[in-house]
Amino acid sequence: MTGANKGIGRAVAGRLAELGMTVVVGARDPEKGAEAVAEINAAGGTAHPIGLDVTDQRGVSAAAEQIADRFGRLDVLVNNAGIAGDLAAQAPGSAHLDGLRAVFETNLFGVVTVTEAMLPLLRRSAAARIVNVSSGTASMGWTTDATHYLSRMPGSLGYPVSKAALNMLTVQYAKALSREGILVNAVAPGACDTDFAKGLPFQLTRTAAEGAAIVVRLATLGRECPTGGFFDDNGRLPW
Ligand SMILES: NC(=O)c1ccc[n+]([C@@H]2O[C@H](COP(=O)([O-])OP(=O)(O)OC[C@H]3O[C@@H](n4cnc5c(N)ncnc54)[C@H](OP(=O)(O)O)[C@@H]3O)[C@@H](O)[C@H]2O)c1
């Protein structure tokens, strides 16, 4: 799991451990990762920390090697790490490229970096799954539907665009990996009151645990698990 030390990722890690899975808690700050691992293990789970900054390609490769040495395979990859970024830098008309690139570096290229590094380990699993944590803001259907609240959000060239690209990345990986039985889906956790929401001009209402539920569902579904889809608690979302 990436970004598993807090927020939705931490809630997913805790829940997967409760379900009996051995969880590798990826965190870019080793101390925060160790704290999350200690909490999960104190609650009766089995978790292991791993240093993982999704923007650091060498560090991600090293993490994959450590997982290979210690566990030999990976059954589930949850690409959860994500940032809202500097909102002012993303506004149409006053956007600046450095701010946009930073968002894409984590939310899109970070997912590619981690997925490419972990694929050899996923290929060793009998039933591998990849869950990409996307966002309802990525939905063009919702964003262009005048009756949906997302259509009234201020325009942004960064975060929603990065997550829409993540959705297409999900479809492309799903297509490429379906013959190998590796299932790849994107999920929208809903508007959760985590540190992610700190810079927003409004309050988000769901808990991290509520947001984690759809991630856990797609990570643990059996053979009936779809692939190449975009889901929230209520089912498929419009692209
Ligand atoms: N909260 C919402 O309303 C909402 C809605 C839709 C989608 N999402 C998505 O849900 C995911 C989790 O968000 P959250 O709400 O749980 O936010 P959060 O509380 O801010 O947690 C984000 C996590 O990602 C990690 N992270 C950020 N950049 C990273 C990097 N370069 N390498 C590795 N880890 C990195 C953070 O690590 P640090 O602790 O080191 O910063 C943290 O663990 C994100 O992908 C977000 O886009 C959130």
From TrEMBL:
Keyword Oxidoreductase: yes
Protein keywords: NADP, Oxidoreductase
Oxidoreductase found in the keyword field: yes
One annotated GO molecular function: oxidoreductase activity
Database matches in InterPro entries: NAD(P)-bd_dom_sf, Sc_DH/Rdtase_CS, SDR_fam
Family statement drawn from the similarity comment of this UniProt entry: Belongs to the short-chain dehydrogenases/reductases (SDR) family.
PANTHER family for this protein: (+)-NEOMENTHOL DEHYDROGENASE, SHORT-CHAIN DEHYDROGENASE_REDUCTASE
Protein name per Swiss-Prot or TrEMBL: NAD(P)-dependent dehydrogenase, short-chain alcohol dehydrogenase family
